[in-house]
Amino acid sequence: MEMLLFGLTLLLTLGAQGYINHWYRKTKVMKPNSRMSGEMVARKILDANGLKRVKVVETSGILSDHYDPKGKIVRLSTDIYQNTSLASISVAAHECGHAIQDKDNYFFLRFRSAIVPFVNIASSLGYVAIMIGFVMGAFGFIRIGIAMECVILAFQMITLPVEFNASHRALIQLKELGIVGEKEHRNCYKMLRAAALTYVAAVATSILEILRLVLISRRDD
Predict the structure, then answer these.
(1) In 3-state terms, what secondary structure has residue 76?
(2) How many domains does the chain divide into?
(3) 0.90 surpassed by pTM
(4) Catalytic residue among 39, 58, 95, 163, which?
(5) Is residue 80 domain-resident?
(6) In angstroms, rounded to a whole number, what is the distance separating the alpha carbons of residues 68 and 49?
(7) 95 is known as an active-site residue
């Protein structure tokens, strides 16, 4: 059973990654009629929503795009920032969706940001406890690790509405501001849906991993 759960976890992770990679590659070669880059789209959406003070900057890494609520900065990876593709404008619009959430004091975004320090601590402690448990055969430590994994799972579940809502806001902006046409809008939706499903897969993966650890910890019962 433990090996089955591990196999399902691996399958979910690889499947979700493969799905997002498929849609990213597909929409990366699709050029919007507007010929706008990710940076241009981000700037247009932010300005249209009264967020002129929010900066759009280029950052290193691949798909390292994110919104920084403290600095009020939308950070876009080079590929997204510079390119004019449906993939680029979809990701850029999604990050602007987070900026709009911030402006609207979206509850789940606020709550997620507030608990990040606790989740980081839980992640570190959980990893150490599980490693000690496996190395020393101390199942009590594994149970501590399970408790920390549950904290991470809760964080991932809070992340779901944040990400889905940001994509929803992004699709509205892309359409209302005339950045994409009807067919382009459908492809942007598919790209953002694929990205959102990776978060769903992460939740499912965490649940399976917790179940696997529970089975291991019960060996001494």
Answers:
(1) strand
(2) 1
(3) no
(4) 95
(5) no
(6) 17
(7) yes
How many Cβ atoms from other residues are within 10 Å of residue 52's Cβ? Answer: 10
pLDDT of residue 220: 56
Phi and psi based region of residue 58 (left: phi greater than 0; alpha: psi -120 to 50; beta: remaining) = beta
AA letter at 218: R
Contact 199, 160 (CB under 8 A): yes
Categorize the per-residue pLDDT at 137 as very low, low, confident or very high, splitting at 50, 70 and 90.
low
**Token pair recorded at residue 190:** 């598919």
Structure tokens at 116: 């990040």
Place of tokens 């939740």: 203
Amino acid at 163: E
Place of tokens 């280029």: 58
Pick from 220, 51, 25, 33: which is nearest to 140 by CA? 220
pLDDT value at 12 more than 90: no
Q: Per-residue pLDDT tens for 57-88?
A: 999 988 789 999 999 999 999 999 999 999 99
H or E element, residue 170: helix 139-176
Query: Do the domain assignments include residue 81?
Result: no
Domain hosting residue 207, numbered range? 2-31+86-93+104-220
pLDDT, one tens digit per residue, over 160-219 is 999 999 999 999 999 999 999 999 999 999 999 999 988 998 898 888 888 888 887 776
CA distance 119 to 125: 10
Asked if the structure places residue 164 within a domain, the reply is yes
Answer whether residue 48 is part of any domain.
no
Question: Residues 177, 180, 186, 188: is their CA dihedral positive or negative?
Answer: negative
